[in-house]
Amino acid sequence: MRLAQKEIPDSYDLRVLSLGAGVQSSTVLFKMLENKIKMADVAIFADTGNEPKEVYDYLKYLINVTKDKLPIHIVSSGNIVDDALATKEKGTNKGFITMPIYAIDDFGKKSLGRRQCTNNYKIQPINKEVRKILNVKTLRGKNIEMIMGISTDEIQRARKPHTQWQINYYPLIEMDMSRHDCKHYVKETNVKQPPRSACIVCPYHSNDEWQHLKDNYPEEFKQAVEFDRAIRDVAKDKNIKNYLHSSFIPLDQVNFKKKLDIYQGSLFDDECQGMCGV
Q: pTM score, two decimals?
């Protein structure tokens, strides 16, 4: 399935796999290697500086698997955590919490912060790399196919791009594959099982994901706890308290086995647009 602001072109200036090193985008990559999906010209991994160790390890694995078959470019616009806690610098991400954190004021009014992280740390670095590859200052007039690992159970994340030059391609939807199908395919293909791809401190983690982090990656969970504390210290308005968890409780005090009042995944699906968590 391809979505665009204009008529789908017959040819492309560049075909890019948006690689998150998670289940779905890795499935797309493996199917490219098997010639079941047309091979991209390049895969681009946008590093937020806060990916789990298992994602970085899996990325190394993918680089080895695709050697001489598909170039994988790693790009970054900075460390999302360090930038959030840094001193403000005009014209940069420094000093701004770009992720959608949960906030509550002294009167009990709750709010969800604006999500800018996907654009700042995923979309823009990838677009910058595309311009660099094509050696152009603007992509106006170009036809760039962005291949994304969105599966049928997340079809609401498949959207038309905002720009005229971009054509979004969702091969897993075209092949009627769910996330479960992707996991089964990877298992049957006898390759290393990919991890869930998302920032360590992502506020859209489900309770199961937080528990997984706490049980299996205590150092990474500790980083998240420290960041959770820090975002309360750096709040502009001292009458507002910021949290990573939707319970508005410090992360190290949350009972992750308790059912959430809201489904965080629905928020993630609505906002991510195919660039995170795949």
A: 0.90
